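Sample intake — Bifunctional NAD(P)H-hydrate repair enzyme
Collected from: Amycolatopsis heterodermiae
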Amino acid sequence: MQGIWTTERIREAEGRAFAVTPDGELMRRASFGLSVQIADVLAEHTGTVSGRRVVLLAGSGDNGGDALWAGAFLRRRGVAVTAVLLGSRAHEAGLAALKRAGGRVVSAEDGPQWIARADVVVDGIVGISASGSLRPEAARLVSLVEAPIVAVDLPSGVDPDTGAVDGPAVRATRTVTFGALKPVHALAPSWCGEVVLVDIGLELTDPDLQRLDVADVAAAWPVPGPEDDKYSQGVVGVAAGSATYPGAAVLTAGAAVRATAGMVRYAGHAADVVRAQWPEVIATGTVADAGRVQAWAVGPGIGIGSEGRDVVRYVLGQGLPVCADADATTIIAKSPEVLDARDPDTPLVLTPHAGEYERLMGRKPGPDRVTAAREAAKKYNAVVLLKGHVTVVAAPDGRAAVNTPRGAWLATPGSGDVLSGLLGSLLAAGLDPWLAAAMAAHVHSLAGAIAAQNAPTSSSALVHAIPEAIRSIRSLLS
Ligand SMILES: NC(=O)C1=CN([C@@H]2O[C@H](COP(=O)(O)OP(=O)(O)OC[C@H]3O[C@@H](n4cnc5c(N)ncnc54)[C@H](O)[C@@H]3O)[C@@H](O)[C@H]2O)[C@@H](O)CC1
Ligand SMILES: Nc1ncnc2c1ncn2[C@@H]1O[C@H](COP(=O)(O)OP(=O)(O)O)[C@@H](O)[C@H]1O
Ligand SMILES: [K+]
């Protein structure tokens, strides 16, 4: 598990570290690590380090200080360094160090001509004390940059704690952060680029947010043992699709088939189509006739009429873990009384996209998606998986996980149905619902990347890529 801490917690940890380290030591560690990364980006993009030109955009705080000190280290490697000073003042010690090392210092007015010739630009405009988007002077200079940008700690203009962007911001090729990952790094991947963490000796426990490592998913993925049979691994019930939307049934059931060696049962109006596509599925017409299961995936394509409502009420009343997706979330939002059938101790996972979230909560998720997911989890006493480019999974006890995607190819019709089937199979295997949801999101995005391979893909291809995703994750264990 990777831990992620809010800027408030980072500042507390920095305060503790400051107390036990010599003056300037933390910044020295940070800026030395930063200089190594800037040199690496220079080498990657130009083939050399010495003789190349780096421009530092230096704001008035310690973020600018890091950039200026890194510039001083780069001078020792023969890099031509020019600092463009933004704001009314500059980090004094950093500025002095850069000047001593032979760096050039220019005003914002003179910045454009240096930016035009830069091989790499360093964003030391603002760090964890940032609020709001780039101010006009910084925004104008950033808009002129054509070279790769290395962001110091985080891309300026992006909110450090939510990853939200509501105006001009830096789009970095690489972000070099210090001590620990902050929410922006998981929530705004397309602004951060590659994120590199430099250890400066901060001590932090109890992360505010988590991200599953491949190793976590590998270790927790259910695997049949010698004593197992088709029932003992957990039977998944899929209540999805309709005569109008048989595809949702095929995709949801197919994802469950591909994600588990155990049995998959299907109940609904698309039984014939499901049987034809997935002969291993035991398909019936109604949930009451489905037979015993250990968890339900309900919702995709079932419609939001009275029949759909009865299906949702039925599965919620079985005392079993339920993944309620798509139409099931709308039904729960419109007719919350269906939840009366639920024993509050049985796990429920809701998987809304932004529109479904609005129906459930009466408001949009807004820029702080982690808080939004946590609030919905509390309200519904359920794990909430909030879909989007970045997926957030929150539990009623406050745990929150983030899944950072590998590209955006999953923005394709039916891909949510595939996620439901995956998640249903993990719930049937008895996994903790929060972990199950975070694992499903992880495997879903990896399967998406495998299916797409940098070209458009489809949800059917995504289903077929699930075993390859699981195989590549589990290969870590061998
Ligand atoms: N405190 C520490 O121990 C360490 C801090 N480090 C660096 O220090 C940074 C934090 O430095 P500071 O707290 O001095 O603050 P920043 O450098 O993040 O911000 C400087 C000032 O800019 C102003 N500001 C806020 N939003 C702005 C905006 N949108 N446009 C322009 N100006 C804005 C604020 O008044 C803020 O105080 C970290 O991100 C990291 O880069 C590192 O040196 C590692 C050690
Ligand atoms: N831009 C994006 N980048 C990465 N993943 C995305 C993006 N847009 C959507 N997704 C993912 O694709 C899935 C879409 O699900 P959903 O909105 O239910 O669509 P559908 O109903 O068509 O299946 C979710 O898992 C979501 O997280
Ligand atoms: K920055």
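Post-analysis note: The mean pLDDT is 97.
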